Known about the structure:
By secondary structure, this protein is an alpha/beta fold. It has a domain at 5-174 and 215-239 and 279-290: NAD(P)-binding Rossmann-like Domain (Rossmann fold, 3-Layer(aba) Sandwich). The chain is 36% helix and 17% strand. The strands form four sheets. Strands 3-2-1-4-5-6-11 form a seven-stranded parallel sheet, sandwiched between helices. The protein has a two-stranded parallel ribbon with strand order 7-10. A two-stranded parallel ribbon has the order 8-13.
Amino acid sequence: MKDRNILITGGLGFIGSHIANSLMDDNSITIIDNLTSGRLDYIDNPNHDNLTLIQNDLNGLDLTATLKDIDYVFHLAAMVSVPLSVENPIRCHEENVTATVNLLNACVKNDIEKIVFSSSSAVYGENTNMPLKESEIPMPSSPYAASKASCELYLKSFHESYGLNYTALRYFNVFGPKQDKNSPYAAVIPNFINAILENREPVIYGDGEQTRDFVYVGDVARANINAAESDYNGIVNVASGKRITINELYEIVKKTLNADVDVRYLPKRPGDIEHSHADISNMKRINLEIDTTDFEKQLVETINWFRQDLK
Ligand SMILES: NC(=O)c1ccc[n+]([C@@H]2O[C@H](COP(=O)([O-])OP(=O)(O)OC[C@H]3O[C@@H](n4cnc5c(N)ncnc54)[C@H](O)[C@@H]3O)[C@@H](O)[C@H]2O)c1
């Protein structure tokens, strides 16, 4: 992608900053971010000539004016926590659904080429038809999951009603450098690494036999860019296609960190799903292949980043 005008909502966050950094030298980037969980130092060069930063809530902006001359929109800004959405479903709806519908409206008014939406494997809920295909009926078990499923439906309806081009990417469990470790809702890999590095007892919610399908953040950034450049309108799972239990994952993290710490088991959290494993055949529609042999190398890169960040 070259010489395009790109808007990234949530561009200072974990995934958004990887997209911004990989596109910034060759394109003009506008980021909207309210810094709830994003960080300016996630951007390699925050003073880059090609960067315009709008530090604001998505809901408080004149989006039609902001999207003037934009070619592609990557929409990542959202309430990202399942437990927080269970605590506050109205706020989740405003931040995830209302904000998205406003953004889609502005995309139509500005005739943008395509929007790539960050959806989630959470829309599958407790569906047990593994590996999960995009054609399954959504079974959201949290307001967060319902908000992502709603946005996918709005995307399809805006495509049908106004011809807006879109791809919704259902990420499975993303990991990698810059993942938020300070949030009380931090994801499992940063939780494990951080606890071990800080000599705390790592925690597993449930019995640890729940499975997840992990995908590296660099591959997720690539999925976004490929999706923008593809002519596919629809939903695509973004995952490795391999599943691993949380207990197995903990053993790998422990071995990689050369640590000998026992884990503490706490009750399962509301809204958490039991199993997650993707059918990845649709990834070819956006020309995406993921090399799954690199998992341990990617884990080492992630650990090195957390070590550095701790300093
Ligand atoms: N990380 C994962 O494993 C995962 C899995 C599935 C889906 N997703 C989705 O991918 C997207 C990005 O997730 P992430 O892991 O990078 O999270 P993140 O919290 O690191 O990034 C979200 C960014 O959006 C910003 N933001 C939040 N609400 C905003 C608002 N109302 N207005 C403006 N900015 C706002 C935050 O400050 C942050 O920089 C989210 O939509 C999330 O639901 C992530």
